[in-house]
Amino acid sequence: MLPPFIIEQIRKREEEEARRREPQPVLELPLPGPPPRPDSSRYDDEEKDRGVVIIDLGARPSP
After folding, report:
1. CA 3 to CA 9: how far, in whole Å?
2. Would the pTM of this model clear 0.85, i.e. be above it?
3. Non-local CB neighbours of 10 within 8 Å, separated by 6+ positions
4. How far apart are CA 18 and CA 12, in angstroms?
């Protein structure tokens, strides 16, 4: 049989190895969003040709 101090050393090493193998908790920090667009780009968006889409939702009378 092994002396008690050697058994304690083996136990500590096994615990340390088990701690290293366990996945560590990860803290996700909230990152700031994209920087605000300058005011000049707002006017650029208004000047672009946006196009028109017409959707007829009305029912047509049957003949």
Report:
1. 10
2. no
3. 2
4. 10
- DSSP for 1-63? ---HHHHHHHHHHHHHHHHHHSPPP-PPPPPP-PPPPPHHHHHHHHHS---------PPPPP-
Number of residues assigned to the chain: 63
Q: Take residue 25 and report the two structure tokens written for it.
A: 């908790």
> How far apart are the C-alpha atoms of 7 and 35, rounded to whole Å?
59
Summarised one tens digit per residue, pLDDT across range 25-61 is 888 888 888 877 666 555 555 566 667 888 888 777 7
